[in-house]
Specification:
The protein is mainly α. Helix content is 65%, strand content 0%. It has a domain at 60-92.
């Protein structure tokens, strides 16, 4: 019986090479998780609430710009459409 070395079959390693340095994205995500997101549940809820309000306000401003700049008879559908999107964001 021949051994693997005698058959000249390469030995395959099932381990992936470990990266020498974490990528920029993984370092950024780790920084955000460790430093910017509060660990206290009350503070975390306040941050989430403020960010949600900011996103909703940007959506309202986009709908207002669409209604001001677009000259179509359908331009006023931007406001209810944005309202539906904001409501879906609130319930998700």
């Amino acid at each position: 019986m021949l051994t693997i070395q005698e058959m000249n079959v390469p030995i395959v390693s099932h381990q992936l090479p470990s990266p020498s340095k974490p990528s920029f994205l993984s370092r950024t995500c780790r920084y955000i998780r460790q430093k910017l997101i509060p660990k206290d549940l009350g503070r975390r809820a306040v941050v989430q609430h403020v960010l949600g309000d900011a996103v909703n306000n940007v959506g309202v401003m986009i709908a207002a710009l669409v209604m001001m700049l677009v000259k179509s008879k359908y331009r006023f559908y931007a406001d209810p459409a944005m309202s539906v999107l904001i409501a879906m964001g609130l319930f998700s």
